[in-house]
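Input/output pair, single chain:
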Amino acid sequence: MGGAVPMGYDVNDKALIVNPVEAEAIRTIFAEYLAVGSVRELSDRLGALGIVSKRRTDRYGRTTGGKSFSRGALYNILRNPVYIGKTRHKDELHDGLHDAIIDDAAWQQVQDQLADHGGKKIRASRRSAKRLLDGLLYDSKGRPMRTTYAIKSKRSGGTEQSQRYWYYTSKPTSSDDQCRIERFPAGEVERLVLRGLKTRLDDQSWLTRQIRSAVDLDPSSITDILRSADSLSNQIADESEHTDAHHLSGLVDRIDLSKEQFCVRLDLGAIQPTEKAELPIHVDFEIPFQKRQAGQARPIIIAPPDAPRPDRDLINLVADAIRWSAELLDGTSGTIRQIENREGLRSGSVSRALPLAWLAPDISTAILEGRQPEHLTAKKLRSLPELPLDWYEQRRILGFPHQ
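Output:
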């Protein structure tokens, strides 16, 4: 690699490798810019956080850097595609051989915000940023979460189309707020919360116990609440992800994000008939979830703890191994080198993957369905020194249950 090494990376054998401490600073720069919306304010914010430029030592032992960022330097960082694993050649972007530090959605959101503030015309029409849980979500530090979005362009059928990706993002409480910004994909959070809410509204025994432990109501009032809960549950089921925010107005008091669960507080008094509504009836429940991301440049996934975890890289790796094996067996490809040249792969890539063509059928099926052990990734499979043909040994090494 030629030129100055960008902040967030070091160089080892002419290749960029992630510097963990600097990478965290880069993520903070991107998150803070999205939060404050101005490079001038970003510069002040970084100064308060003590985040400074990359320290460099030349061959004579002289050290430079470690100073406050100029606005020009911040613009260069925010516009540098190296942080999403890309390299720029003239006006084109190409996949790099280094790991990304920023995910594509966040980087694109920053580019849109930079373009907007620079006076560039936004082609996509604006619409209300109001989402189902606006004003209800709070992050693990108790800060309110606001709606943001990123726009990503892609080509389909020869035309360029833009797609909007929505997120709930922590809103700093002040310029002195040094806590890390938290960000969750809006659609997945909303689906998970609606599913958990519907489960509770359908459970009339649970509702009755919660009401009686909170207030002293006569049986007819409890019946009215149960009837309203059933009606609201049916509306959620009918409208699915298109549920309007007004259905939750008053009922959902707040939702706090803690480690691996949403803590939901309801006010069941809000669904009593108007003539009977007097005091709030607060009840709480939790919705467990798992937050995962297959690589820093991949989307964040929010799902129930027992949800399947399809890993596209892992699935493609096994599928490629099966395809390459079939080509070698039927003579479509004469040599491994021929496959590597055709696919543009490094020497040894195909040889390391080929044993995966003989995985036990239950292992292949589990990977396809997203039921592989959490630790099993494409990178781990590629790095295995040897994969035995014995299916029992494969299950033991890869962490699958024995049949």
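Residues 119-129 have pLDDT under 50 and may be disordered. The chain is about 40% helix and 20% strand.
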